[in-house]
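Entry
Fold in token form

___
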Amino acid sequence: MSMNYSKVRLKIGVNEIEIYGVKDDMEYLGQLALKIYDTVSKSPNSLQSKVTVVEKEDEQAKRAENIIQLPDIQPDPNSSLPANILKLFISEWGKKPRRLSEVKEVLDSFGLVYPKQTVAVSLLRLAKEGKIRRFKNERGEYVYISVPSKIIQEEQGEMA
């Protein structure tokens, strides 16, 4: 799918501001250009110290979400899906809360392609077994995180 890009150029005296972005963001780019113009027109002598371009918070969050961090593990294609998911959560990668989509993306990147629903069921079962934790984040989405190894050792000690 091709993206349509636009450019907003604002020239004030000898100073020129050029903003380049996706056409869908034209309204935001226009507002940004007007804010810059207002700032510059009020104090043209201090142009460099007053004008700063800041990305929208939503755009920063989207960019951060699009970066896939791969755990330092070697999944076994002959192992079960839950076993490979546990490998993910035992690594450093699993110490940060992860959404279903993140788990699926990492599995896909290792060549372990499963339907989203299958991964979701495996995560839920692992959570019910106490092998990983499941809770809602501030956005109301379910996230999964590793169980500290100390708790796992205590449970295994009680079973023995």
In short: The beta strands are 5-12, 15-22, 98-99, 132-136, 142-146. The chain has a mean pLDDT of 75.
